[in-house]
Amino acid sequence: RETGLRVSVSHLNLFHVEILPNLFVTPVHKSLQSLLPSDIPLIQKCLEEIEPDTSLDSLEELHFQWLPKPYQIKIKSFVQSFNSFLGSLDVQEDIFSLGSTSCIVANQLCFLEEGRTRRKSASKKCSLLFVDRSLDLASPCVHSMDYLTDKLLSL
Predict the structure, then answer these.
(1) Is CB count within 10 Å lower at the N or C end of the chain?
(2) Of 99, 103, 95, nearest to 129 (Cα)?
């Protein structure tokens, strides 16, 4: 039965802010915090349910599937959004990471099936650097040329 109603769904990806023609930043994802060594006991509890005989001694040994499900969902959501953003730029990326959480995010983006398809048809290239915020806590508080963010912005 026709009611005469029409629905239009529009999607505008507000995922980035362009600072310079070749430099952009993404919004803070407060719910996706960098993992810290103090998170290992919680992750170990989740791991015991999946693989009871496996022990996690450091974050460098961590696998995505060992993370708590809510955290996995946050990472997947971020990765899907970032993949969509890269698709809108029509780029094939080289991914680099600093930190255990960034490494997990980079691996998820790298092995994302939609990303593989997108990279095959991309016409441009770019380099991505994911950095755990826990590695550079001083930058948000101090403005000088001594911190990672400042050095990147000065290039």
Answers:
(1) N
(2) 95
